[in-house]
Amino acid sequence: MPNIKPVPPASELRKHVATVHVSGELSLLERKIVNVLLLNAFDELLSKKTHRLPVGILCTMLGFDSKNTDALKRALLKIMSTPISFDLLHEGGKSDWDASPLIGYAGIKNGVCSYEYSEWLAQKLANPDIYTLININVQRQFSGGYALALYENCLRFKRTGSTGWISVETWRRLLGADASMYDEFKHFSGEVIKKAVQEINQVSNIIVTPEYKREARRVVQIRFLVEDNPQRSVYDGSEDEDQRAIRESDAFKRLTALGIGDRLAISWIQQEPERALQTAIYVEERARKKQITGNPGGYARTVFEKGSSINNTSTPREDGRKKPEKEASRAKEIAGEEAADARVKRTSAAIKALSLDERRELAETYLADGGKGVTYQRESATFKDAIERTAYTAWLRATVSSRIEQA
Fold first, then answer.
1. How far from 136 is each of 11, 214, 294, CA to CA, in Å?
2. pTM for the whole thing?
3. 141-238 is a CATH 3.40.50.10800 domain
4. For residue 81, how many C-alpha atoms fall within 13 Å in the half-sphere facing its CB?
5. Which pLDDT score is estimated for 225?
6. 217's torsion region: left (phi>0), alpha (psi -120 to 50) or beta?
7. Beta carbons within 8 Å of 3's beta carbon, 6+ residues apart
8. Third-level CATH fold of 1-139
9. Which of 86, 173, 300, 354 would staple 283 via disulfide (CB 3.0–4.6 Å)?
């Protein structure tokens, strides 16, 4: 059996910018695989031809179902057929051009993924003159391929603060947004740029802000301003003592077991630790009794955010005379919860339909009423800080729900 080196789940990869600037479309899973394989091989790129990684460890680092090996194989085939170009952004004024497939060989046997880079590419990857540090723990948070691609392309500019002006056509190639529908800028902006920016700012260790340059009212270039996310420790694993303590808490373990994301669970516990724990206990009990028809995580969000009291007190077994009364009370409770769920859906739809001006008006009302908004951005009517954003979201939902009820 070959000597296989396990990889820690929160490691940083020095990734050559050419492998970031992939000309051609890679899916979210494919981009993640490229990074994990390179991280695993990095220290031995020049000393070993064939690199190996257990499929179980690979999938853990990807946040991927290890049983779905067919999808893994398809992704590896796509990676093998995707070339990288070493002059897409014309780094340093170079005029030479080189291209190579990302990996030259891949195979899965006895639960182990084996793969190889060409000798030429291994030399390039082992000694990157310009590189981006990719944190694998951050990578796992992404659910959109365009968002991860934009994140990688922006990350190396964090120190300079801006990507610089790059043509719309080049950005489309960098992000793999080559579908014909994106020939029209409003579709590229709405479906790719805006959604990618929103996800990066919510789940990563940087904040990006797009700016546009127009000629004759047509957008021809885009640049992204890049800065540290104030909540970066939540995303990249560089947690302080308080956050480590939260991760060790009973509330955090119970919430994440229900399907609540790490970032949201930490935010809840920081805001209202007792309510966070009571929410987890309440939803666990409802799930055990099979009284939740949907996703337990989604139900937990409804319970936590609607603001009503949570009663986790167990009721002693009652005699037969009280059973009909108990059943009637339970039916009334279920009907009330169904009505609450319906209100949540109406509220979500109403918030989604708000115009930018309406969002600004609501945010500024929140701030005027004493809400914390140090990181409020009027241009987008959003809050950079995750804790501020969560507190505002709870207020927004309550306000919009109240307006719906009064209408």
1. 6, 36, 31
2. 0.44
3. no
4. 7
5. 92
6. left
7. none
8. Arc Repressor Mutant, subunit A (1.10.10)
9. 300
